[in-house]
Amino acid sequence: MKFSSQNKLTTTRGALFENLKRIFLLRIVIIVFLILSLVALRYLNIPLPLHSIALALFLMTLLNGWTYLKLKRGKTLSDKTILSQLILDVCVLTFMFYFIGGYGNPFIWMYLIPITIGAVSLKKSYLWFLTSISFISYTALIFFNRPISHLHMHEFEFKYDIHSLGMWLGFIVSAAVITIFVSRIGQNLRDQDRFIANAREKVLESERMLALGAVSTSTAHELGTPLSTMAVITKDFEHFLAKDKKALKKLSILTSQIKRCKEILATLSSASQDIHQKKMTKVTVNQFISEIVDRWRDTRLSTQLSFKKTYLNKNLKINYDRALSQAIQNLLDNAADASEDKVDFSIKTDRRYLSLIIRDYGNGNAAHLNQSMYQPQSSSKGLGLGVYLSKTIFDLYEGSFEFNAHPNQGMIATVKIPIERLMDAKKS
């Protein structure tokens, strides 16, 4: 039986949804239990007001049907929803017990079920209100009820001692309710604690990324002046070394590298503005990946890139994000650093995921690389931030990311990002 998970957007709403679902399932158990009890009592030839009991069961079934619709449609839930459900349960039980002996009925313990559920589902004020309603209902049944003489038959044969049988069944069912229902709600609370712990960890991670981003933006701004100075000086050197072709060739390389640094800083500045202004540009998957590959090839001329792509729909529109683009480039850089001669890059899309597989031919260590996802690691090739930053960005898209050793040689980086997240207007 499937219900809408719309209410699981937050831990509180998710817990309310789960509690209401368990009330629904527990109510089914109670209905079946009552029906079986009625059948057993009829088998023992004990006269009962079947019409009244059938009406009570019908009301409980109707209530459960309404609960099912709320779960199916995923309507917004609150503590008042749970409270109203439990109060209606108490009312239906009171109606039924009125016709079958009132407070002397051996199944009067069933009042404890809504209270038990409320104890782990409701805030204190609502719980006391529910308990008061149950107390008033129980007390009213002492003075207002239709007695059934067969409920206290003190004969020697156990099968006719209905009150003892009811007390025994009451213990069994109460124990089962506490064991199953309360333990599951306890699991809900533990899940909620884990969710909160993960959320706190993500907040700390975001703060670290924010600090890193602020430092990067500041550094980019500061680098602009020395790069401009270097560009002017190299321009002057072109005149001084006009006759030295060998020196001019080296100077040309230096000039192109300075130009490349300026382009990177301009891209970083533009990306910072886009993030600040929350700009998103729609592009096709093919355009997005092709731009990454072309830009990376321009910076890694000495590395042979074997690129394969398999698109379910290459015209699928996604949001262009510079951060995600840079995260993928970081992995390509990491692979090229490990094996400068060759890197394999394959991409595949299906109905659910964008999958990226990057293989190098170096001698990397999978355990070390997987550890570097969670903490920046020292690196002889750079600052050791590439893998860490990539993992953080993939997490924003609820993507998975891992390193594995290739059976022959090298490492394989595998990334899977939900297509739905790539199409979202905003990242959470």
State the order of secondary-structure elements, H for helix, E for strand: HHHHHHHEHEEHEEHHEEH
Give the oligomer, counting copies of the same chain as homo and different chains as hetero.
single chain
Helix/strand-derived category reads: alpha+beta
Helix content: 55-70%
GO molecular function, one term: phosphorelay sensor kinase activity
EC number: 2.7.13.3
Catalytic activity: ATP + protein L-histidine = ADP + protein N-phospho-L-histidine
GO cellular component, one term: plasma membrane
Give the gist of this structure.
The chain is built from 12 helices and 7 strands. With 428 residues, it is an alpha+beta fold.
Structural key phrases:
single chain; 428 residues; Heat Shock Protein 90; 5-stranded mixed beta sheet; elongated
Topology:
Elements (H helix, E strand, L loop, with lengths): L10 H33 L6 H24 L5 H21 L12 H10 L2 H20 L18 H79 L4 H33 L3 E4 H15 L4 E7 L6 E4 L1 H17 L3 E8 L3 E7 L6 H6 L14 H11 L3 E6 L5 E8 H5 L5
Helix pairs in contact: 1-2, 1-3, 1-6, 2-3, 3-4, 3-5, 4-5, 4-6, 6-7, 8-9, 9-11
